[in-house]
Specification:
The protein is mostly helical and 227 residues long. It has 11 helices and no strands. Helix 2 (22-47) packs across helix 3 and helix 5 (75-95) packs parallel to helix 9.
């Protein structure tokens, strides 16, 4: 009786061998996200926020348009992600500077704003358009949960810097601690507008304005509470 020939070995690799390691998969996803964000920012800056389409972003990032939607629902979500990066960069810049650990409050806040301006500088046209977009009632940039959380994260850090500058046990009685963060948010928006319209080289007028106004504003709020 003839023997049944052995079955040929399967050419399929084991599932574990076919799948890239989790670390590599996460890295590839991050690279794709970064490519989409870089493509979007370049188009926002060159063509304008309103004129840029997700199709154009996908084409520049060399991905399918559906891939863009896998990472970001809308153009505004890409803009919000960029602003999250900006806030994270600014916080890290202040916390990572040992010289600022014992610096006065106005010096820490100046460093915070300066790092934001430096980060935003290559995308000035886009930031101006995003500022206007955020004022629209239905805009995610101004009125979404993500925008609110980003604002709270930023102001929580400002609150930390303020409280670090006040004597222990007296922080709850300080006008600076109570009114400082919301006042700083309005002030920051004003600084952003000033920066957008500053024609000076290197935005030196903006930096000078921040230096003078921070000292004045903090002095006024200090007079309303503990010294």
């Amino acid at each position: 009786m003839p023997r049944t020939p052995p079955r040929p070995a399967s050419r399929k690799r084991p599932a574990a061998a076919r799948r890239p390691p989790p670390g590599r998969r996460a890295l590839n996803k991050q690279r794709t996200r970064d490519r989409i964000v870089a493509a979007a920012l370049a188009l926002f800056q060159s063509k304008g926020f309103e004129q840029t389409t997700t199709r154009a972003i996908a084409r520049r990032a060399r991905v399918a348009e559906g891939t863009v939607f896998n990472y970001f629902e809308t153009k505004e979500d890409i803009a919000l992600h960029f602003l999250e990066l900006e806030v994270g960069h600014a916080i890290a810049a202040v916390r990572g500077n040992r010289r600022l650990a014992r610096a006065p409050l106005e010096e820490k806040l100046f460093a915070l704003l300066e790092s934001q301006i430096v980060f935003l500088a290559p995308y000035e046209r886009f930031i101006g358009a995003a500022f206007v977009q955020a004022l629209k009632p239905a805009s995610k940039l101004g009125w979404s949960r993500q925008a609110a959380e980003l604002r709270l994260r930023y102001l929580a850090f400002v609150q930390e810097l303020i409280e670090e500058s006040l004597p222990r046990g007296k922080r709850e009685h300080s006008a600076l601690a109570w009114f400082g963060p919301p006042a700083f948010w309005v002030y920051y928006l004003g600084v952003l507008l000033y920066w957008l319209h500053d024609p000076s080289a290197g935005k030196q007028q903006t930096l000078a304005f921040i230096d003078r106004s921070l000292k004045f504003g903090i002095a006024v709020l200090r007079k309303g509470g503990v010294k």
